[in-house]
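Our preliminary data section would be incomplete without showing what the modeling component actually yields. Below, a chain of 408 amino acids is followed by its predicted structure, encoded as tokens that our downstream tools consume directly.
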Amino acid sequence: MRILALTSWWPEPADNGIKLRIRHLLRALARNHDIHLVALTHDGTNTSQRQEIDQLCASAMALSASLRNPRRRDVIASLWHVQPASVRVRWNSQWSAVVHAQAAVLKPDVVLSIELATAVYAYKIPGVARILDDPELVGLSSWYRASSVPGKLRAWLTWQKQRSYVRYLLRSFDACSVVSEAELDLVRRLAPSEARLAVVPNGADISGCMGDWGEPQPDTLIYPGSLTYHANLDAVQYFLRDIFPQIRQRRSGVRLRITGRVEPEQLAALPSCDSVDVLGFVSDVRGEVARAWCEVVPLREGSGTRLKVLEALALGTPVISTSKGIEGLALEHERHVLVADTPESFADATLRVLAQPELRARLAEAGRCRVAELYDWRVIGERMNNLINEVAERRRRVAPGLQRIGNA
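Predicted structure:
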């Protein structure tokens, strides 16, 4: 089949979770279908890294524009418009024209919108099966976690607007794929519709994680994640402020290594510590993760399922995480990972792994087996492939001329 894939990121370099998801889904789908990629980006995309994308896709283009901040009139207009202000400020009429022109020329069997931001460009393409992948709603639904009353009110209003928008959108999509059972339950509750719902989780490249990466270094912790993302910055601040001092007090030689993009303002926001190595962007983080004694994931916010956790386990690196950090993953405390939700218990769990090589080995083996069993990208890719085939077949059975609600 011919698939028009819309993304909000150019997939290379695959240096964050959504880019990894896009790349692995493209790999899986390209084995059976012709993929035509349109990346709609706001990040000043450089498409010079495109060798694999050109191999996977029959065609690939990136459209880029600067992202403006919402103005007061955007916020006011969104009060009676179905689209939230965050969607309105990202709307680009030229992008819409290009996407619809591509659809008219290619006549795809399926339009795959990856992430909610691309759905607005797909939902009115006529006569084609439409799938929305990874709308990432769990984070927005946690409005009650805001620290202040005004913050709670703003977050609650954002969530109410977003859920109404998703309910409206899904009337025009044949299917919606989400990354976890928690997300599935949320979408089912807020947007009951005719759309087929399916779990297509995040995963790890099991074969790509095999090999000799070097020996694990004792007393070495790692946190892989861009500090330009607020959830990662909060996690590292929390770890350095409340957890790491307890670890260092009892085991003074421990060091933390942080990989991922970081700007000066994020560096300035970190608690001062001379036992932290901020490596910045690393093109291939697998070696750094594999050589760490364990990975710490002290996340307290954010959504989705954590590719950093799955990749660490696939590499045989044990993970100490908050419950939030493994949310949506079928991982058990003390069997596959260690879970700790207070600074004291997190420090204790980390020190256990640092001091007990046999515990490290047991967690490493169990974690690797669990990821291979449930989260291999090859298996996950087949789930998406099956969903696409099912939706396209169902669309073909619809009588010619019939349009789903929302096409008008």
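Residues 402-408 have pLDDT under 50 and may be disordered. The two ends are 25 Å apart (CA to CA). Preliminary results of this kind motivate Aim 1 of the renewal.
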